[in-house]
Amino acid sequence: MAYADQQASGNKIVSLVVVALIHIVVIYALVTGLAYSAVKTVAEKLNVVDIEEEVIEEPVPPPPPPPDQPITPPPVVTPPPIVRTPPTSAPTITTTNVPPPVFIPQPIAAPPPAPPAPPPAPSKASGAAPRGNPGSWATPNDYPARALREERAGTTRFRVSIGPDGRVTDCQIIGSSGHADLDQATCTNVTRRARFRPALDAAGNPIADSYSNAVRWEIPR
Questions:
Q1: Which stretches are tagged as biased composition: Low complexity (predicted)?
Q2: Which tens digit of pLDDT belongs to each residue from 1-11?
């Protein structure tokens, strides 16, 4: 009896486990089938329409109107006049053989020789010349008193400058007598007494000149 109860209890447990497994399988099948159906439905809805995003472009404003410009009328074109040229015949050209001219050289006469140049006018140039005797320019009466007392003598050489009027303008001692008073007496008396014919240039005009000479001072006897 106890063995029979144990076997009945074991069969009952097995039956409960089998039933539980069957329920699990059925629930799993239901859950899995529903999920697959839901996923398939959503995928079909997503694949039905592929909507592209529409790009909206902003309208471009039209360009501003050009400024008012004066309306230039079209130029007036005048058609050229109709000129009718009557037909002309070609001119007749006649050629004649003309011999070239013969060149005969002509002798060229030599130009006459140029006349000789006129001779130059005679020169009127001349140097200054003393008027009268140069020995009278200094006399024994002009002997310096001191030099006469001391019996000093000598020769003094001089040069005078002469103006265009023939008068002495300057006197220079170019050779001393050795005594200053004798040299001074020479220039003083020559400047006061000497007169000259003035020097002339080539055209005969009086010009300045110079003259040289000497005075010999000797003690009068």
A1: 85-97
A2: 444 455 556 67
Of 170, 173, 201, the C-alpha closest to 186 is 173
Q: Dump pLDDT digits (tens) for 196-207.
A: 999 999 999 999
What DSSP line would sit under 38-98, residue for residue?
A: HHHHHHHHHHH--PPPPPPPPPPPPPPPPPP-PPPPPPP-PPPP---PPP-PPPP------
Placement of tokens 């309208």 in the chain? 59
CATH 2.60.40 fits 129-217, yes or no: no
Given a cut of 80, is residue 42 above it in pLDDT? no
Burial of residue 1, with CB atoms counted within 10 A of its CB: 0-12 exposed, 13-18 middle, 19 or more buried: exposed
- The string of DSSP letters for the chain reads -HHHHHHHHHHHHHHHHHHHHHHHHHHHHHHHHHHHHHHHHHHHHHHH--PPPPPPPPPPPPPPPPPP-PPPPPPP-PPPP---PPP-PPPP------PPPPP---PPPPPPPPPPPPPPPPP--B--EESS-GGGGS-GGGS-HHHHHTT--EEEEEEEEE-TTSBEEEEEEEE--S-HHHHHHHHHHHHHH-BEEPEE-TTS-EE-EEEEEEEEE----
Name, in order, each residue with C-beta under 8 angstroms of 70's C-beta and a sequence gap of 6 or more. none
Domain extents in the chain: 129-217
Enter the tokens of residue 206: 């009086």
